[in-house]
């Protein structure tokens, strides 16, 4: 082999190595995705089975025939339309309150100068080490004294006072916004609130969308909060109502109906992530770039 052919051979071998590495990475990702999706496929399969076919062995992945009436039966055993409305009301208000309050607090920690600002921020971060079990009883006593128990207020109002984790995320994102924009706005006579509303928020849509998605999932799937504060059947949320399919006296344990309701409850989260995927990924990538 001549010397002039060595660079071409080396480039060919390098391209083959890259192709092989890419194939291995894709195979690993596809295999991991299949493993992760197995419980999801099993949920859909179980929701279309007859009651006595759920525990069949060996398990049947494709029901024949599929029992589509399971969804109609599952959604009519309890007034799930009411539970969906309750959950949607709580979720929308908590998303709005968390996004506004956390972004406003994060703007103060990221842009405004005040004595002891960093110390206050560190104290705020230290509260993340307190588990919810420590504050659960004092919070219940507080809300009980306010006569808020068995109402939606304990599940909504606290979110209008910020969330430590979201404040941290948004602060890190706000630090990446050039200060020159803020300085130019102040020269034009903008106040801090005007800068927050006209500059910071429009430039932080990916981070705000990330916070809203996280809060939506947290509120939509919240089980412990409604279990503690809600007692009336008409005020249940979907997560709380879903638990009654595990063995209520009304219908008994019916796994196929529970899986049908679980899939319907999962649909809003899937749609939200599907349509907000681009903003969500941008928020995850850019949040926390600058410390």
Describe what you observe in this structure.
The protein folds into 2 domains: 66 residues, no CATH class; 217 residues, Orthogonal Bundle (MetI-like fold), CATH 1.10.3720.10. It is 69% helix and 0% strand. The chain contains 14 helices and no strands. The protein is flat, with a radius of gyration of 26 Å.
Features:
291 residues; mainly alpha; MetI-like fold; 14 helices; disordered N terminus
What's the short version?
By secondary structure, this protein is mainly alpha-helical. The protein has 14 helices and no strands.
Assign the CATH architecture of the largest domain: Orthogonal Bundle
Proportion of residues in β-strands = under 5%
Share in helix: 55-70%
Helix run count:
14
Average pLDDT value?
83
Please tell me the total number of domains.
2
Give the overall form.
flat
Number of DSSP strand runs: 0
Distance between the termini: 55 Å
Radius of gyration: 26 Å
Weakly predicted, low-confidence segments: 1-5
Q: CATH homologous superfamily of the largest domain - what is it?
A: MetI-like
CATH class type of the largest domain? Mainly Alpha
- Give the helix/strand class: mainly alpha
Q: Give the quaternary arrangement of the chains.
A: single chain
| CATH topology value of the largest domain | MetI-like fold
Main beta-sheet annotation: none
Helix-strand sequence: HHHHHHHHHHHHHH
């Amino acid at each position: 082999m001549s010397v002039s052919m060595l660079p071409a051979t080396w480039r060919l071998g390098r391209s083959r190595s890259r192709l092989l590495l890419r194939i291995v990475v894709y195979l690993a990702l596809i295999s991991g995705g299949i493993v992760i999706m197995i419980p999801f496929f099993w949920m859909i399969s179980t929701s279309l089975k007859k009651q006595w076919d759920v525990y069949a062995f060996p398990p049947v992945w494709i029901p024949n025939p599929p029992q589509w009436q399971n969804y109609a039966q599952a959604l009519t055993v309890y007034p799930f339309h009411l539970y969906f409305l309750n959950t949607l009301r709580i979720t929308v208000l908590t998303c709005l309150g968390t996004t506004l309050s956390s972004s406003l607090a994060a703007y103060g920690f990221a842009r405004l100068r005040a004595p002891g600002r960093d110390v206050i921020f560190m104290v705020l971060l230290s509260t993340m080490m307190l588990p919810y079990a420590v504050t659960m009883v004092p919070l219940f006593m507080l809300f009980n004294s306010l006569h808020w128990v068995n109402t939606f207020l304990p599940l909504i109002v606290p979110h209008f006072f910020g969330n430590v984790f979201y404040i941290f995320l948004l602060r890190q994102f706000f630090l990446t916004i050039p200060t020159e924009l803020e300085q130019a706005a102040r020269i034009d006579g903008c106040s801090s609130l005007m800068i927050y509303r006209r500059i910071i928020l429009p430039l932080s849509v990916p981070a705000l969308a990330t916070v809203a998605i996280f809060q939506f999932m947290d509120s939509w799937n919240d089980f412990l909060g409604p279990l503690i504060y809600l007692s009336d059947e008409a005020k249940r949320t979907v997560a709380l109502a879903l638990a009654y399919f595990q063995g209520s006296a009304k219908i008994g344990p019916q796994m196929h109906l529970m899986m049908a309701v679980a899939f319907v409850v999962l649909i809003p989260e899937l749609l939200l992530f599907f349509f907000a995927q681009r903003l969500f990924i941008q928020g995850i990538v850019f949040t926390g770039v600058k410390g």
